[in-house]
Specification:
The chain is of the alpha/beta class and 207 residues long. The protein has a single domain, classed as Vaccinia Virus protein VP39 (Rossmann fold). Helices cover 32% and strands 21% of the residues. Strand 2, helix 2 and strand 3 form a beta-alpha-beta unit. The two termini are 28 Å apart. The N terminus is likely disordered.
């Protein structure tokens, strides 16, 4: 797909916006190296995205973020570290997953502390639905992984319930303790407050 020119001075080729024609991304247009792709869904200020990309130079990372201020913060973190294996796509997460990510191309998805919309009347705004999980499955490579973390026990149970109903994933052990992942800004805040973190690691079930 054709992508718009970067909008941030000093963040050359870091931030991209969709071309508006729903054509899937072409990874070699975003990255110089051919490598496994990991996607940070709702990358926020980019703390996790920049840190994990720096730790794993042999992999490519895409952060998806709708809010301009957060996207710019993520771009600054990437640019300041001189990372060439991390990019920010500024658009809505569900739209990007369904329309912009090539099928069978993503090795790992990270959904870290999505907005829980705790009030019952707002639950319909939660990102994890059966349709969303199906789109994630389509974009994942065979055997690909979907990692979820939240501090909201109610949301965690709701996600686990939708996962069981859709049957497109199987739960697998969390091996992050063997190779710890960086913390997001939200995770640092929640841990400082003593909140419990709930995690779910899922593997794509091949059809």
């Amino acid at each position: 797909m054709q992508v718009a020119a970067p909008r941030l001075s000093g963040s050359a080729a870091v931030e991209f916006t969709p071309g508006g024609d729903d054509r899937p991304l072409v990874w070699h247009e975003l990255f110089a190296q051919e490598a496994p792709i990991e996607v940070d869904l709702g990358c926020g200020d980019g703390s996790f995205l920049a840190a994990i990309a720096e730790q794993n130079p042999g992999r490519n990372f895409v952060g998806i973020e709708r809010l301009l201020g957060r996207a710019r913060s993520a771009c600054r973190k990437i640019a300041s570290r001189g990372l060439t294996n991390a990019r920010v796509l500024r658009t809505d997460v569900p739209y990007a997953v369904e329309h912009l990510l090539p099928p069978d191309s993503v090795d790992v998805f990270h959904l870290l502390f999505p907005d829980p919309w705790p009030k019952r009347r707002h639950h319909r705004r939660r990102v994890v639905t059966a349709e969303f999980l199906q789109a994630i499955s389509v974009a994942l490579a065979p055997g690909g992984t979907f990692r979820v973390a939240t501090d909201e026990a109610d949301y965690f149970e709701a996600i686990a319930r939708v996962v069981r109903q859709t049957a497109v994933f199987e739960q697998v052990p969390d091996t992050a303790s063997e190779s710890p992942l960086p913390s997001t800004t939200f995770e640092q805040r929640f841990r400082a407050a003593g909140d419990e973190i709930h995690r779910l690691v899922l593997r794509k079930v091949s059809g």
